[in-house]
Amino acid sequence: MVLLIACSEPVSTSPSLDTTPKDLETQEKEEASNKQAVEVEKPVTEVAEVAPEGEEEEQAVSHPPFEYPDAIRGIYVTGHSAGGQKFPDLLKLVETTDLNAMVIDIKDDHGWITYKMEGDMEPFSKPFMKDPKALVQTLSDHKIYPIARIVVFKDSVLAGQKPELSFKNGGQVWKNRRGEAFVNPFLTEVWQHNVEIAKEAAKLGFQEIQFDYVRFPEGFENRDKTLTYGMGNYTKDQLEPRLVAVWEKKKIEWETEHQEAWAEQREAQPPSETLAGDAKPAPIAIQESAPPKPEYDAVAARVTAVTDFVEYAKKELEPYNVKVSVDIFGYTATLSEAPGIGQNFTAISNHVDVISSMIYPSHWGPGYFNIPKPDTDPHRLVQEYAKMENQKLAQMENPPLSRPWIQDFTAPWLGKGNYIPYGKREVELQIKALNEAGIKEFLLWNAGNNYTPNVDYTPLN
Fold this sequence. Notes:
The chain is of the alpha/beta class. The protein has one domain (2-230, 307-445): TIM Barrel (Alpha-Beta Barrel), CATH 3.20.20. The protein contains 12 helices and 15 strands. The chain has helices at 27-35, 79-82, 87-95, 132-141, 156-161, 188-204, 236-268, 284-288, 298-317, 345-349, 378-394, 424-436, and strands at residues 2-6, 45-49, 73-77, 101-107, 113-115, 125-129, 145-151, 168-169, 172-173, 208-212, 323-329, 354-358, 401-402, 405-407, 442-445. The strands form 4 sheets. Strands 13-12-11-10-7-4-3-15-14 form a 9-stranded parallel β-sheet. Helix 11 packs parallel to helix 12 (424-436). The longest helix is centred in the middle third of the chain and has 33 residues, at 236-268. It is globular, with a radius of gyration of 24 Å. Mean pLDDT is 86; it is low at 1-26 and 30-58.
C-alpha cells in the first residue's frame, strides 16, 4: 500500500503606534512586483511507501549537500529571476563576491507557487522555474546556501479560489487599496496550505524556510469590525482559557522567582495588614512586576493566531531538518506588540531559528530613533536599531539568530529631501553598522533583483 504525500515587505512608517510603516509593504517592493508577469504551476506529489506498523515514516529524501557558511550574506531572488535570463548574472554576483546565499520565492507575493506542482496544489502553481531540483543542484555546485521564501497571509490566489478563507466586504473578497487580498490567519486550513508548500521546498533541498507576511493586513484594527471572517479556534470561549492557563503558569514562575526577595523586603517593612494569616503583603515594587492577568480582546486573538502559526510551522518542519525563519517589520521590535497586524517580536522569536527584521532606512518615519530623515542616514538608523534589537534578544533564554533585511534600492516616493540615492556607500554603511553591533548576517532586498555592483560585503575585514 502506498500513501500519497503532497510535496514539493516597504513603505515609510511614522513613530506613532497606531500606524504601520507606509502600509507595511515597501513601495519599492510593490512597484517592482507589479512589473512582473504572473503565470501558474502545479504541486509536485511524491509517493512514499507507508512505513510498517510501529516504524516511523521516513521524511528525508536525497538532495544535494550544503554547508552552512561562516555567516549568511544573501540576496533576494524572485521566481521569475530564478527561472529566467537574469539568473546567470545573479549567480555570478554571488560567486564573485563575499555573498553566499539566495532567498528564492517558492510562493510569491501574489500567492503563486513558483514551479509546477501536481494534485491539490496544481491550481495554485505556475512554472516560473522549470526545474527547481536542477536549480538547487546548481546552488550546491556553487556553494550557495538556498533559502525558500514563502509569502503566507498575503495571498490573492488562495483568496480568489477559496473566498471562505479570506476576509469579505459586502459578500466579496476584501482587497486593500493596491488590489491585494489576504487570507485569514485564524484558520488552520490556511496554515496547512503554506506548510505543505514549505515541506515540498524542504524536499527539493532548500536548507531553510523563510516565512514572510506572517501577519494580518496593515491597518486591520481599523476595519476588523466591518469585515466578515471566521475566528477559527480564536473565539473568546476557546482562547480565553488558554490565555489564563498561560498566565497562571507564568504567575507561579514569577512567585517562585521573587519569593526570596519578597521575604527579605517583607521583613524590612513596618507592620501592615496581612494577606493571609500573619503574612505581610508583597512590597509594591514587587507586586507591580507580576505578570498581569490577560483579558481576551481582538489584539490578543490576532497576536496569538500569528504566533501559533509560527509555532505550528516550526513543529511540522522538524522532520525535514530545515531551519525556519520569519520576516518581521523592524518597527515591531520597538513595541511590545503591533496590535493591528498581530506581530509580537519576542513571541515569534521564541519559535524560529532566525529572525529577519526588515530594517530598510526608507521604512522609518521622521523622528524614529531621533533621526529626522532616516533614509538619509543609513548607518545611524541601522546602528540604533541593532542596539535596540540586541537588548531585546538578550532578554530571551534561547534567542534566534538575527539576520536583518537591509536596503539596496532608492526610495524616491519619500519625496525630495527625505531620501538619498542608494548605492555602494549606503549598502556598505548598513552592513558596517550591523557588523559593529555584532550582527554578522544580513540579506539584501531589491524587488527587481538589480543589485549594486562592487559592494564590499565584509567592510570590517
